Amino acid sequence: MNIEIWRKKGQLSRLDTEITANREKIQQLTIENNENKQQQRLHVQELQAEIEAAYERIEQKLSEEPHKWTLIKQWIRNNANADPPDFPPLRIGERLLLLGLINARQLNKCLEEQRIHGGRLGDIAVRFGYVDRSQIQDIIDQSFKRLLLGEQLVRAGYLKRDQLEEALRVQQSVGGDIGSILISMNLITPAQLTEALAVQNQTGRLMAYNKQEVMNAKLPEAVAQRFKAIAIRRSVDQCIIAVDALLNDEAIHQLAQIIDTPVTQVLASPWEMELLWDQIYQEEQLHESTEKLKKEQPENSASQTFTFAQIICMIVIGIVIAAALLWNWFYTLVIINVVIQLMYFSMTVTKFIMILYGTKENAQIRFNAKQIQDIDERALPLYTILVPMYKESNVVPQLVHNLDQLDYPKNKLDIRLLIEKDDIEAQEVIQSLHLPSYFQMIIIPEGQPKTKPKACNYGLIRARGKYVVIYDAEDRPDPDQLKKVFLAFQQSPEHTACIQAKLNYFNSRQNLLTKFFTQEYSNWFELLLPGIMQINIPIPLGGTSNHFKTDVLKKLGAWDPYNVTEDADLGIRLYKQNYTTRVVDSRTLEEANSRFMNWIHQRSRWIKGYMQTWLVHMRHPIKLHQELGIKGFWGAQFMLLSSPLLPMLNPIFWSLLVLWYATHAGWITAFFPGIIYYLAAAQLILGNFLFIYTNIAGTYWVVHELYRKKETWLSYGLVRYALLTPIYWAMMSIASIKALWQLIRKPFYWEKTVHGFDQERYDTTKSNSL
Amino acid sequence: MLTYSAVGLKEMTVAQLQDENRQLELQILALKNERARARARYEETIKKLQATREHLLQIERGVDHFPKDISK
């Protein structure tokens, strides 16, 4: 024990040294940062002063040679469409100066105002009373030459001509606008693009703004959403709005009528707009992400776990059972047993049928390598990827690597990393990575419930993609997954709203638990889910890799933030609205839970979510029956009830079996009268065999397919562990009892699953699904 | 018994120190990020100002060399 203390002492002194060193480093960095900022500020001020001086020098030179100045003025007036010889292209301020309409001091004042508040220089000069509106308009009408965006950027010195040519070549093959291509190639910054667009379109550019002023100018959220515009300054005679895509005259006119003020627009980059939305409409957006579904479709929201009618119903059932037990406890228990045995039997048969359907070749949408290669990338739409995460900064570098592997034009990606406000570490790690512009960090404001669906709803509000998909932070999607889904949507009927990719685990070899989990997922995603799709009953979606049509998802009210298995719930809601879901033959590899307690947390949340979903949709069983039809209704019952109910009932019957073998008690036999005995025996032998066999078949199916594709991250050795599945069932029973307890005590509590225990050891990211 | 308590106390202290160290490392990362952000902003501003300065120098030269008789 003394050795232990001694070892700890060593550790303590090491930590002390590290802490002291880090404190010193912080002090040093703080000083350096302040010094750097000071130096940078001085340098910027020096250059600004030089520029101011240059304007004054030009004015001075012109004043000293009045004859020359007159000639220059004449030249500019007479050759409005061209710049004077040996002059660079003149900007509006310089034209005003050379024409003698304003002096250098006034021009510098206008430029300073523009630096602080943004807006167009001409408008500022008019506002300051230096020139008339008509004078400005004349200059603009005569001199303005609209250049192509690339030319504009080259002329501004932000881009070299060969870089532009390279980007144009990329544009020919992938399509999309040149601005986003240049940004995705990291050749220009979003701010430079916005500035060039503003010059090209002769409009103002959003500069620094005063938050309080913006708050005072705030438009109603619905108006802001409709026009995708944020008012940044508002007076009696003018409202300046920031937009990331210019509104046309008609929209400007409509907005001016709504707010009863003339409107001027300034351009902001999508990233600046995101920041503005976050600062100005955070409360509204938070409200929308948590309350929209509850407000618009209260019957579909899990914000209330049990309705009054359900409580009454449960009390009545309880009273009836209690009364029956008092009347004749034995017959009552026999009847309950009969009902349970019939339920077991029907669930076993249904699962078997589903699996049979799932083995069909066309149960999944499949594409070969040539079909993927033949895709015309110009036709690919913008794709939004939502990645909600919480306290998972350790997996961020791997996540970025995995998403970078996606074979999809980068200018058509809108990746939104959804980070909770209190997760400072993740925010700092993401910033330190200097991610390309198609990655955007969205900070989810504090607020209850603090769940993944709420974060996804928040990220979805301004998602720009035609399609949207969710990935977890540790996910490794097949590189060609987005392209496969694009093709799947193209080939599916219009009412297909969701394409589910298959999930599996990269760390199956880690321990027995990960082996069980891999078998379960192989069975579920390779056989059962495609089977459900074939039978056409509601599909409880997987937690990630479900690809949606963004407009349909928004129309449906997106995810229920109060439901802890929002994915399963959304599957039912899609079916209710006559949308279909299909399964595509593409995988996303995740990290299987390798620790028992972590697994229990995750599984109990899932089971609780299934209970929640069942309770929500069974508030009005008759209405649900009408909405889903007979097949859909019973399919939903099977899907939602089997997960929580079977694991809860199993321990009772296992105990009875053990007790019977131990005691041969006659009362146990009496509970299984006549045909029920044979039914239960068939369940015991055939049912359990079937469940184990489907695990074997599912696992073998996946491993075999992978070997055909020369992928070896799963081995045939995994199949034999299916024989130990009963251990896994026992664990499920523990999780389901915990889930029931939590459903009553903490229905909305999102039990966090910890990821990132074994990321590096299982690097499968280099393999392609084709 | 005393030995056990001592080990427990040490473990608690180690955990506390590790937590403190982690917070300090986070602060270092935040400061480095702040520096990188400021640098990026500065470089973009300077690039723009230098382009403007160059542009104005060209105008100045244009004024200097502007022909006294433009009919030529």
Automatic annotation (TrEMBL), chain A:
Report if keyword S-adenosyl-L-methionine is assigned.
no
Single GO term (MF): glycosyltransferase activity
- What stretch or stretches form a coiled coil here? 12-64
EC main class here is transferase
Q: Which domain of life is it from?
A: Bacteria
Instruction: List the transmembrane segments.
Output: 305-327, 333-357, 652-672, 684-703, 723-741
Which EC numbers characterise this protein's activity in its record?
Answer: 2.4.-.-
Type II secretion system protein GspE N-terminal domain mapped to chain residues: 216-284
Q: Which family does it belong to?
A: Belongs to the glycosyltransferase 2 family.
What's the protein here called? Glycosyltransferase
**Native source species:** Sporolactobacillus mangiferae
The organism's lineage is: Bacteria, Bacillati, Bacillota, Bacilli, Bacillales
Automatic annotation (TrEMBL), chain B:
Instruction: Reply yes or no: does the keyword Coiled coil apply.
Output: yes
Keywords, comma-separated and alphabetical:
Coiled coil
Q: Which residues form a coiled coil?
A: 7-59
Report which superkingdom the organism of origin falls in: Bacteria
Know the name of this protein? Uncharacterized protein
Q: Name the species this protein comes from.
A: Sporolactobacillus mangiferae
